């Protein structure tokens, strides 16, 4: 059978960087960072600039296909089936410029945080815990960093978004232009256009102490309860996370053991801030003064593509000793992670976007299948989800303040009335019912990528 009319139309776009099912490069081109997700789009395209993005969007509309943007595919589990969709991969939109005097960076949509953190040094960007996460996907969904309690969400640091709308127009949204889009993009990202570049503020951080403290998991209940108490009054210069997890590979002496690990950063002297935790006599204490760029690898996340179960998250108002015990019992050997919220992360920013803060004292993060754990957390929950750390199922509106949701839906209806754009966390236009999207999973053994 010869190529379809749609395939003929798509073939010549993006300087030939369009891969159709059956092409030799299709399998590599469609592979996400999360190799557990078997994405099989109608085509994969690698546009290099806004003009190529616009041409692709127009062609998609003409042949009756939809378009999903993807940087790395860290969140590929949220996208769902793509058989009627062109996967627009942003990797060819590179470029990074840093204006140190103005403390600002402009970053192409294909860049990863690992590209940015060294380049902006000694200034700091509000990057995630894993260095190979994409700058755009993280920034548009909120962005919890090790600087968060002092400096807020990365979405608040965005000063301009360059994008191509579903109608094929290249626009720049900032504080003075496209006010609705600028608001909606900072939290609702993929629903409002294909972002081609971002500008965001950088921060001077003259002194950073960072590292981890570790205890045997047998002491987890006592130590986690103490961390929860400490976190309630810790200075805003400190942002930490507590995890029950197998010893990371870097801790060779503890290999094979289950640990309670507290890691994070202190913007300033660490001594007084960490004294209550150090008083609990951790077996490992690596906290030291480090360059800001070292924070990119603080969480000891393995880098590069791999199968990943995905994540579910729930913001918690507060926790007490009974809550800690219930969470640990429910987590069992499956592990759990609590991220320390509060401080600037909890303060709404009037000039911010659709997600300018996250209410709550802690964010519980665990595998999507950890039902017992989320049930144990329910009495403490604010009801708010953090969508960047949430797989695509469930109520997307719970990722936003109630007042933001109708405004997001109205803006979606105005800028993408036919739903050309596919987003991992879809915001239905004011006229639509939210679509149900089930993630597709690879059957059988994981491939090596
Ligand atoms: C190991 C790991 C560690 C993490 N650590 C943190 C953390 O510390 N803090 C935190 O807040 N989050 C964290 N996350 C979550 C992460 O921020 C989100 O998964 C984020 O969406 C990933 O962005 P990406 O571009 O790499 O992924 P992708 O899957 O490529 O994209 C994610 C979403 O953004 C959209 N998108 C991407 N590029 C564009 C574009 N150019 N235009 C429009 N839409 C676009 C996609 O359509 C998709 O909906 C982590 C995730 C993992 C897997």
TrEMBL record:
Superkingdom of origin organism: Bacteria
Taxonomic lineage of the native organism: Bacteria, Bacillati, Actinomycetota, Actinomycetes, Micromonosporales
FAD-binding PCMH-type domain span: 37-205
Entry keyword set: FAD, Flavoprotein, Oxidoreductase
Name of the protein this chain belongs to: FAD-binding oxidoreductase
InterPro entries referenced in this protein's UniProt entry, alphabetically: FAD-bd_PCMH, FAD-bd_PCMH-like_sf, FAD-bd_PCMH_sub1, FAD-bd_PCMH_sub2, FAD-linked_Oxidoreductase, Oxid_FAD_bind_N, Oxy_OxRdtase_FAD_BS
Protein family: Belongs to the oxygen-dependent FAD-linked oxidoreductase family.
Requisite cofactors: FAD
């Amino acid at each position: 059978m010869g190529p379809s009319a749609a395939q003929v139309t798509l073939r010549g776009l993006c300087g030939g960087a369009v891969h159709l099912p059956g092409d030799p490069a299709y399998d590599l081109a469609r592979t996400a960072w999360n190799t557990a997700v078997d994405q099989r789009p109608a085509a994969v395209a690698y546009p290099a600039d806004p003009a190529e993005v616009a041409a692709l969007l127009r062609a998609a509309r003409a042949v009756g296909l939809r378009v999903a943007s993807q940087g790395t595919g860290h969140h590929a589990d949220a996208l769902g089936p793509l058989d009627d969709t062109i996967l627009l991969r942003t990797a060819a939109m590179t470029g990074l410029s840093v204006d140190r005097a103005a403390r600002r960076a402009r970053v192409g949509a294909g860049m990863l945080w690992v590209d940015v953190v060294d380049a902006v040094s000694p200034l700091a960007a509000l990057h995630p815990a894993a260095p190979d996460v994409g700058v755009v996907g993280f920034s548009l969904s909120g962005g919890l960093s090790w600087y968060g309690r002092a400096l807020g969400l990365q979405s608040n640091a965005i000063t301009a978004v360059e994008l191509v709308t579903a109608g094929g127009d290249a626009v720049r949204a900032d504080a003075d232009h496209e006010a609705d889009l600028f608001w909606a993009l900072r939290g609702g990202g993929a629903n409002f256009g294909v972002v081609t570049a971002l500008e965001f503020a950088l921060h001077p951080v003259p002194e950073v102490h960072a590292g981890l403290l570790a205890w045997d998991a047998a002491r987890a209940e006592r130590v986690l309860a103490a961390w929860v108490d400490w976190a309630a009054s810790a200075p805003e210069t400190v942002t930490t996370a507590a995890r029950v997890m197998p010893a990371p590979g870097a801790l060779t002496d503890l290999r094979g053991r289950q640990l309670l690990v507290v890691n994070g950063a202190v913007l300033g002297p660490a001594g007084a801030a960490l004294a209550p935790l150090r008083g609990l006599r951790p077996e490992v204490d690596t906290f030291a003064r480090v360059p800001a760029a070292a924070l990119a690898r603080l969480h000891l996340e393995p880098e590069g593509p791999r199968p990943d179960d995905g994540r579910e998250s729930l913001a918690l108002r507060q926790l007490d000793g009974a809550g800690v015990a219930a969470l640990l019992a429910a987590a069992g050997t499956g592990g759990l992670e609590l991220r320390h919220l509060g401080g600037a992360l909890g303060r709404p920013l009037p000039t911010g976007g659709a997600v300018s803060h996250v209410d709550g004292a802690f964010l519980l993060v665990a595998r999507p299948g950890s039902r017992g754990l989320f049930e144990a957390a329910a009495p403490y929950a604010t009801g708010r989800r953090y969508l960047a750390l949430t797989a695509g199922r469930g109520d997307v509106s719970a990722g936003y303040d109630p007042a933001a949701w109708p405004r997001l839906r109205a803006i979606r209806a105005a800028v993408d009335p036919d739903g050309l754009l596919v987003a991992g966390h879809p915001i239905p236009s004011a006229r639509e019912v939210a679509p149900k999207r089930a993630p597709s999973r690879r059957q059988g053994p994981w491939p090596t990528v």
